[in-house]
Design brief:
By secondary structure, the protein is α/β, with parallel strands linked by helices. Helix content is 39%, strand content 18%.
């Protein structure tokens, strides 16, 4: 009783139940089919792409090419040595945007060369090792017995009620995930990923409180003293009313106080210890440690990571990170490492008001004075270390009474930390710095950002920088300063326009996040993988990893066949229907990447909502994709479709059909089917038009699949 939809005929068949009173309303999951498919939105000619079979190339645009009487759309892929490949738009699922580590662009491949298949094989071998390590880690943790917590008590609910905000949906789910993990017999290993200020700390607080209620100790390890101190203040404020003792270990704590804290930790008198890598020293001994919380684990050095590895094997581990994790990697990790993603911003968060300004000292002075007058702080970002001191002098001349500090990556770590420490404590009003503003840090009073020479920054950088302000319920402002709007290059102008149009809280802005996602993948799989990822690009790397993990865990990995469809009629998205070329490309990519009819229907619904009823050429294109899905399920490699007959080709050496059942079926349907050597099936179709011929073919493929598939 679910009904069905025939998108090519624009018919919806409803089940009887929807006509009954009180029938539940169907809910469409907004944009579900598009997730991860929008990387083609901002594709420019010359951008790098990866074809699964032919390797690295450049995007040469969308072209309409006529063969005989029929014109269809093709993607031009430009390879080394002026090699060109025109790819039919129904095969765009084979192409990904190339995302590799920062630095030199890799060399393009040559069509017909063996270099790409060798690179893919080397990558496959590296991936096999990563997948083995992941699966072994999972198996080891399954047989290790951890501490199983008592059921949640009344006191826990009181602690929950003391949280001064309403939890977001993602936050609630992350907390529930963590509490469920803690009740299992094996040790927890969960990663909570979410932007700063989206509520990861509250997840850590609930886990820590739960552990302390059962008489256990908790360690929270941070990469910087400022972050440690931020956590220390938050944990004390929330936990001390419940008579829980919180200790701090860092460079800024006097030696005598550190000694007292260490003694109390040894005796079990400190419930939660928060600190930097100082906590990994040999003189730190816990009496009953059960939970380790790691904040931004990837920022610790190799030695520290080794020490953490020893600690984590038998206790519960909760890792927090602000670096986005690619969705495909989330799938590979599901069931191996717990993963909770917090994507919904807090309810009272206002979008950052963003402006593009030409350099005008009087206007900059007014901006600084306005922020300082409301008791706030300012980030002034300039990305060249050499000129930073001149900028400090310039800022000081604009607001002579302001306390101006300077921070950049070439300073001694200790000096930089000292500066950040002062800024956090409100001892500085303006921080002039390079783009190194700590990603994990929360500066609630810093609500104005000025990016000097904004045209020199990448889109991802600008997006991330803007995310450093607007952390509280105060209205935040971001100003992108450029020397001269008229002389700005077209690419810089476009980049700045995108970020001006983009609402920070609409967290669907994927393209700018790709460099961060790449970092997120490196962080989880180990930095050594950056080179391997660079060979084939992030998307293909993660696809291969997911297949390998599935294989090792005993799942079935079917070799993906990309059938070739030869059709004698037009199947495309007409320009009159979707005028914008980039938008057409987006829909081609989204539709051709679908692996089931439901996903296609969802995208078609979206197109109908936006552009009106489907033109004939688009209905034909949708029908082509539906046929392709059935062909793929049959294991066929090619279909030639004529007005009154179709030829289905299989590869003799590898197919997944039962030949004896096929012979029986052909015997029963001799009037419309016959087998041709070496491995072809001819079907006679009764179709008065291309669309009807395709529908007849689709119906036959459906029957065939039921009967002859192994």
């Amino acid at each position: 009783g679910h009904g069905m939809r025939l998108p090519w005929a624009e018919i919806q068949i409803l089940p009887e139940s929807v006509l009954q009173p009180g029938a539940p309303k169907a809910q469409r999951s907004a944009g579900k089919a598009f997730k991860g498919l929008d990387a083609f939105d901002e594709l420019e000619c010359g951008d790098l792409l990866v074809h699964r079979d032919y390797g690295l190339c450049r995007f040469g645009g969308l072209h309409r090419i006529k063969f005989g009487d029929v014109a269809n759309d093709y993607l031009l892929l430009q390879y080394d040595g002026e090699d060109r490949l025109y790819l039919p738009v129904d095969r765009l699922g084979q192409v990904q945007r190339y995302k590799g580590p920062d630095g030199a662009a890799p060399a393009l491949d040559r069509l017909g060369s063996a270099a790409w298949s060798k690179a893919r094989e080397r990558t496959r071998q590296s991936i096999a090792k990563i997948a083995r390590d992941l699966v072994e880690m999972y198996a080891f943790r399954k047989i290790t017995k951890g501490f199983q917590y008592n059921p949640i008590s009344e006191l826990y609910w009181e602690f929950e009620a003391s949280f001064g905000f309403e939890e977001t949906r993602d936050q609630e789910k992350a907390i529930a995930d963590v509490l469920a993990d803690m009740e299992k017999p094996e040790p927890m290993d969960r990663l909570v990923c979410g932007d700063v200020g989206f509520g990861k700390t509250e997840v850590a607080l609930r886990a820590a409180f739960r552990a302390v209620l059962d008489g256990k100790q908790v360690a929270l390890l941070c990469p910087t003293t400022v972050l440690a101190e931020q956590h220390y203040q938050t944990f004390r404020q929330r936990m001390e009313p419940f008579s829980i003792t919180v200790g701090l270990l860092s460079r800024f704590v006097p030696a005598a106080a550190q000694k007292r804290t260490l003694e109390a930790v040894r005796r079990g008198q400190v419930d939660v210890l928060i600190g930097t890598h100082r906590m990994l020293s040999k003189d730190v001994e816990f009496s009953n440690l059960a939970l380790l919380i790691l904040d931004e684990e990837q920022r610790f050095g190799v030695k520290h990571k080794e020490r953490i590895k020893k600690m984590r094997s038998t206790i519960d581990v909760l890792t927090l990170t602000a670096t986005p994790i690619p969705r495909t990697l989330q799938l590979s990790l599901s069931g191996i490492r717990g993963l909770s993603v917090i994507e919904t911003p807090p309810r009272d968060r206002k979008p950052v008001e963003t402006s593009l300004l030409e350099r005008d000292p009087a206007q900059l002075k007014a901006i600084l004075e306005r922020e300082l007058a409301r008791g706030g702080q300012v980030f002034w970002v300039y990305n060249r270390v050499q000129g930073l001191e001149r900028v400090v002098e310039f800022v000081s001349s604009l607001v002579p009474g302001a306390r101006v500090g300077m921070g950049h990556g070439q300073m001694k770590a200790q000096d930089l930390e000292e500066t950040m420490h002062k800024f956090w404590h409100g001892e500085l009003d303006v921080l002039v710095c390079t783009a190194i503003i700590e990603s994990g840090l929360d500066f609630p009073r810093a609500n104005t950002l000025i990016v000097d020479q904004a045209q020199l920054f990448g889109l991802g950088q600008l997006y991330q920088l803007r995310g450093r302000v607007g952390r509280s319920s105060e209205q935040a402002y971001a100003y992108f300063i450029i020397p001269d709007l008229d002389r700005l290059q077209e690419t810089s102008r476009k980049r700045l326009k995108i970020i001006l149009d983009m609402d920070y809280l609409g967290a669907g802005f994927k393209v700018a996040m790709e460099d961060l996602r790449l970092r997120g993948a490196g962080n989880i799989l180990g930095e050594a993988q950056s080179g391997t990822i660079g060979k084939v690009g992030l998307d293909l790397f993660l696809e291969m990893l997911e297949e390998e993990v599935t294989r090792l865990r005993g799942g079935k990995v079917e070799t993906e066949i990309e059938p070739e469809l030869n059709l004698g009629f037009q199947a495309l998205i007409p320009e009159e229907y979707v005028a914008d070329g980039k938008e057409r490309l987006h829909y081609y990519k989204a539709l051709s990447s679908c692996h089931d009819e439901g996903a296609i229907v969802e995208i078609v619904d979206d197109m109908r909502d936006r552009f009106g009823s489907l033109p004939e050429a688009l209905k034909t294109f949708v029908a082509v994709l539906m046929i392709k899905i059935d062909t793929r399920r049959l294991g066929a490699v090619r279909v030639d479709l004529f007005e009154e007959r179709a030829l289905i080709h299989w590869d003799e050496t590898r197919h997944n059909i039962d030949l004896s059942k096929l012979m029986d079926w052909v015997g029963e349907n001799a009037a419309c089917a016959r087998i041709l050597p070496p491995a072809k099936l001819e079907l006679r179709l009764s179709g008065a038009s291309p669309t009807l011929a395709m529908h007849a073919l689709k119906d036959m493929l459906l029957v065939l699949r039921e009967r002859i598939r192994l």
